[in-house]
Specification:
alpha/beta; 2 domains; 10 helices; five-stranded mixed beta sheet; Cobalt-precorrin-4 Transmethylase, domain 1; three-stranded parallel beta sheet; Methyltransferase, Cobalt-precorrin-4 Transmethylase, Domain 2
Length: 251
């Protein structure tokens, strides 16, 4: 389940019911404050922060967390995984754990939570229905041929998490330079982008860094930030379909 962005502020009654009914709560959260708060709700809260602190590649850490959760499930325990933000958003272990549990015949459910995306739309005043939004994991854009629509918003996630094996700072810059080459096909180098991070406390202010696209390789981007690229092109009218639509509207 997702616990939201701020401890205690975003927990839904449905999510709390999962905590109440569980034998064990595993906390995959970035701050000790989350664990302290969860410990007030349940008597057996076990932190997973040490696994993240080991600086393992993200997917390796996720696999380790899945095995910890499933180990207790296989032992007959009712397990709740408490994840930062929305448990199913971009690369976390929750989807893998749920799929694996179901494959092995165990009942499993994912409860949504408030995520960075929800804060982003509110803090930046973006209506995803106005121009459209594309959400991509950054590494996917580097590895695969994806079609980008520069008339819509583009949200890039996990830019701080390059492919496994890229550790050195110089290689990280080189990796982001590859990403920049992909983006340069659709966006000019001076196009203004935003590095967004939600507020770290209730009533706090988000961190919003505005930079030209060309500075992306060396920008300060942490694990909970999203790179937002506003539209760089106008919407192109489809005059033929608009004419057919006009006929439908006048019928």
């Amino acid at each position: 389940m997702g616990v939201g962005i701020h401890p205690g502020a975003h927990l839904t009654p449905a999510a709390k019911s999962h905590i109440d009914r569980s034998d064990i709560v595993f906390a995959d959260v970035p701050h000790e404050a989350f664990e302290v708060w969860l410990s007030e709700l349940h008597g057996d809260v076990r932190s997973l922060r040490d696994i993240r602190a080991e600086r393992k590649p993200r997917m390796e850490a996720n696999r380790t967390i899945v095995q910890i959760l499933l180990g207790e499930v296989r032992a007959g325990k009712s397990v709740c995984g408490a994840f930062y933000g929305h448990s199913g958003l971009f690369g976390g272990p929750a989807h893998i754990a749920v799929r694996t549990a179901r494959t092995e015949g165990y009942a499993a459910h994912m409860e949504p939570g408030i995520s960075t995306v929800d804060f982003l739309y509110a803090d930046l005043g973006i209506d995803p229905g106005k121009f459209g939004c594309q959400h991509y994991e950054a590494n996917q854009l580097v590895r695969y041929r994806r079609s980008l629509d520069s008339s819509a918003y583009l949200m890039l996630w996990n830019i701080d998490s390059p492919p496994e094996g890229i550790v050195a700072e110089a290689n990280l810059v080189a990796y982001r330079t590859l990403l920049l080459e992909v983006l340069a096909d659709e966006y000019p180098p001076r196009h203004q982008i935003l590095v967004y991070r939600p507020a770290d406390r209730v009533h706090g202010a988000p961190k919003i860094l505005r930079i030209p696209l060309e500075l992306l390789p060396t920008a300060d981007i942490d694990a909970h930030a999203c790179v937002v690229i506003p539209p760089a092109a106008e919407l192109l009218p489809d005059t033929a379909r608009q004419a057919r639509l006009a006929l439908l509207e006048s019928a």
